[in-house]
Amino acid sequence: DVRRITAPEIRARKGGDPIVSLTSYHAHTAQLLDRHVDVILVGDSLGMVMHGLETTVPVTVEMMIVHGRAVVRGTRRALITVDLPFGSYEASPVEAFHTATRVLKETGAGAVKLEGGRRMAETVRFLVDRGIPVMGHVGLTPQAINTLGSFKARGRDDAEASEILDDARAVAQAGAFSIVLEAIAEPLARRITEEVAPPTIGIGGSPACDGQILVLEDMLGLGARVPKFVKKYAELGPAIEDAVARYAEEVRARTFPGPEHTYAPRAPKAS
Ligand code: KIV
Ligand code: NA
């Protein structure tokens, strides 16, 4: 019998076996991941990857719920964590509570993730105290693209590094069960990992982080342009294009479908 990994179990992995995490937005891929990863994130990156948006800013709670449900249905073991999208939680702890409870009730996921450090600490505490496991996310926070101005790496000078360290400390003290560190200088990711109590999950972080996460489509080689921190473990883009080109050729040549792909009439019934 398979039981789901829980947020407290992930929290207890600090300094232990690395936490393996990937994103998924889709039942079939989630099923393939389920035996190999500990945490599946239904990231708001789905806006860019699945829906062709330029940024994650336009992503809605409804989009997160549709994809979150699909991933929960496709899995039995991994902890499913769903991103709260931009504009659905920042105004107040109460707003965040309403959005997070709706997401958990309507998807069956086990946790939510939200972006932001010191400014979100009160909200993280409010949710955790009311039964909602929260994954933090500091460093590059893509929902803030319009104030940040670019997706470049953060914390590469001392002043910015100390801001991000304070952000991570605040989210840790507020009770997050883990913290994503995105696109920050490697020594900073290492230092945060040494200092904070919950496990850190790096993406453009450090091998010293307590876990790692990548966007599935990026590591499979489906992403058009990918950041420096992505390692491609497959090149599915060219493989898919090759399959589609061969199919098109065979349809045009009438060599597909072959006899093995078509149905013979039924023999008449004996009377
Ligand atoms: O939306 C997402 O995929 C994420 C990960 C990159 C951490 O937030
Ligand atoms: Na995200």
From TrEMBL:
Its cofactor is Mg(2+). Binds 1 Mg(2+) ion per subunit. Its main location: cytoplasm. Keywords: Cytoplasm, Magnesium, Metal-binding, Methyltransferase, Pantothenate biosynthesis, Transferase. 3-methyl-2-oxobutanoate binds at residues 44-45, 83, 113. GO terms for molecular function: 3-methyl-2-oxobutanoate hydroxymethyltransferase activity; magnesium ion binding; methyltransferase activity. InterPro entries: Pantoate_hydroxy_MeTrfase, Pyrv/PenolPyrv_kinase-like_dom, Pyrv_kinase-like_dom_sf. PANTHER family: 3-METHYL-2-OXOBUTANOATE HYDROXYMETHYLTRANSFERASE. Belongs to the PanB family. This is 3-methyl-2-oxobutanoate hydroxymethyltransferase. It comes from Aquabacter spiritensis.
